[in-house]
Amino acid sequence: MLQDYVPVAILFLASLAVAVGGIFLSSWLGPRSKRPAPEKLLPYESGMLPVGPARRRFAIKFYLIAVLFILFDIEVVFMYPWAVVFRELLASAGIIAFIEMLVFVGVLLIGLFYLWKKGALEWE
């Protein structure tokens, strides 16, 4: 029974060897500097002096738009499998499969119109 897990163990050991090997090779072959310049020790890649605090506040609108985009994007992704098997669904379930998708799209549209009326999509 343990013989079934031998390929999984080999894959785990191979991935562990690649990870450890990558870390070892990057530290062994990577550039080393005994005295790094003060500009290199700054938290910015370009060596520019920091302007303002490191943590800036962002408007909540950016996060809201991002969450809404992900929400509607995921909902659209659910429509692709339905569209692929649409003919088989019509053959087996009849028009009910189409009505279910209309209800699904209707709920999405109601949510979109609600967000639109509330001003959640405004950039002001």
Describe it:
It is a single chain. This protein has a domain at 60-118. It is built from four helices and no strands. It has helices at residues 6-29, 60-84, 86-93, 96-118. It starts with 5 loop residues before the first helix and ends in a 6-residue tail after the last helix. The relative contact order is 0.06. The mean pLDDT is 84.
Give short descriptive properties of this protein.
124 residues; single chain; 4 helices; mainly alpha; 0% strand
Quick summary:
This protein is an all-alpha fold. The chain has helices at residues 6-29, 60-84, 86-93, 96-118.
Tally of helical segments: 4
Basic shape: flat
Distance from first to last alpha carbon: 63 Å
Proportion of residues in helical segments: 55-70%
Element order, helices and strands?
Answer: HHHH
Q: Kindly name the structural category.
A: mainly alpha
Number of strands: 0
Biggest sheet statistics: none
Radius of gyration: 27 Å
Question: How do the helices and strands line up, and which of them pair or pack?
Answer:
Blueprint: H1 6-29, H2 60-84, H3 86-93, H4 96-118
